[in-house]
């Protein structure tokens, strides 16, 4: 049993993988809490599609994947903001058009690279075991910056998330706070894609936050619980991947999903069992 926990740490590639999934889990847990608070899960899915062409172009040009993904995500978000000014189209319709186009562009760009099939697969499904030292440093720096900004703007984000009218009446710059959150979601997704892949990254952003939402009514606690669940899911998924030689990204997401189901059933105030108990007591009183 002890060997199960210690053996993976004997390998340098596993040490790097553990560091990245821990950092990605923490960052996505914190940022995802704000996304869940606003009920904006679709933003995470949309951004995951939007960053893909930037990552693909950066890969082909052998430049920073993080920078490429961030630039592409922000350009696409700006395009959506501009085209959404036509009130004949709802914002979610414009998002569907541009983010599908962005993903298609990414696939086309990837097809220009020699041996793109394997590279495309690693982008879609993650390649956490192939992460280099430079990637670890990049994730650490970007993650630290995100956490610092989140801490600095925490009250403003929460105010806008809970009541936009109140936020507007007290003079908060709602548009710029929205743009800041979109940018932070973009960066969180870009640094996590290597761990779980483009297709699964939404789960790392949303599922831990959804678990925390079931476990507590307090925003401060939610911001602590979500990153802990994200980090826990990353560690357990990676251990299972090493032990059974299965896809790390998929196991990380499945672990987070298992935690969500457990929370949905057993959460002390909002779980299924508690709901059934309250209904039973209510019927007994009647």
From TrEMBL:
One Pfam family cited in the UniProt record for this chain: ABC-3
Primary localization class, coarse: membrane
Keywords linked to the UniProt accession: Membrane, Transmembrane, Transmembrane helix, Transport
Designated name of the protein: Anchored repeat-type ABC transporter permease subunit
Gene3D superfamilies membership: ABC transporter involved in vitamin B12 uptake, BtuC
Membrane protein topology class: Multi-pass membrane protein
UniProt KW NADP keyword: no
Subcellular localization: Cell membrane; Membrane
PANTHER family recorded: ABC-TRANSPORTER METAL-BINDING PROTEIN (PTHR30477), IRON TRANSPORT SYSTEM MEMBRANE PROTEIN HI_0360-RELATED (PTHR30477:SF13)
UniProt keyword annotation of Membrane present: yes
Organism: Kribbella ginsengisoli
Protein family (similarity comment): Belongs to the ABC-3 integral membrane protein family.
Regions crossing the membrane: 12-32, 65-83, 95-116, 136-153, 222-240, 246-267
């Amino acid at each position: 049993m002890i060997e199960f926990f210690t053996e993976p740490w004997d390998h340098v590639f596993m040490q790097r993988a553990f560091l990245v999934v821990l950092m990605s889990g923490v960052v996505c847990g914190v940022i995802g809490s704000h996304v869940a608070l606003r009920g904006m899960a679709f933003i995470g899915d949309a951004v995951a599609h939007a960053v893909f062409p930037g990552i693909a172009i950066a890969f082909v040009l052998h430049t920073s994947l993080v920078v490429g993904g961030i630039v592409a995500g922000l350009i696409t978000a700006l395009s959506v903001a501009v085209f959404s000014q036509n009130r004949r189209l709802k914002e979610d319709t414009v998002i569907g058009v541009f983010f599908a186009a962005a993903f298609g562009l990414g696939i086309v760009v990837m097809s220009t690279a020699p041996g793109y099939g394997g590279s495309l697969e690693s982008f879609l499904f993650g390649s956490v075991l192939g992460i280099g030292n430079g990637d670890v440093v990049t994730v650490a720096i970007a993650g630290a910056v995100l956490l610092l900004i989140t801490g600095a703007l925490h009250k403003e984000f929460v105010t806008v998330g809970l009541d936009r009218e109140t936020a507007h009446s007290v003079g908060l710059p709602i548009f710029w706070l929205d743009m800041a959150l979109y940018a932070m979601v973009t960066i969180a997704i870009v640094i996590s894609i290597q761990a779980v892949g483009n297709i699964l990254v939404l789960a790392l952003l949303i599922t831990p936050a959804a678990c925390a939402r079931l476990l507590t009514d307090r925003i401060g606690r939610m911001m602590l619980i979500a990153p802990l669940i994200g980090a826990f899911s990353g560690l357990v998924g990676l251990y299972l991947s090493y032990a059974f030689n299965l896809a790390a990204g998929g196991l990380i997401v499945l672990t987070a999903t298992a935690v969500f189901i457990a929370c949905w059933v057993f959460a002390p105030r909002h779980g299924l069992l508690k709901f059934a108990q309250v209904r039973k007591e209510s019927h007994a009183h009647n």
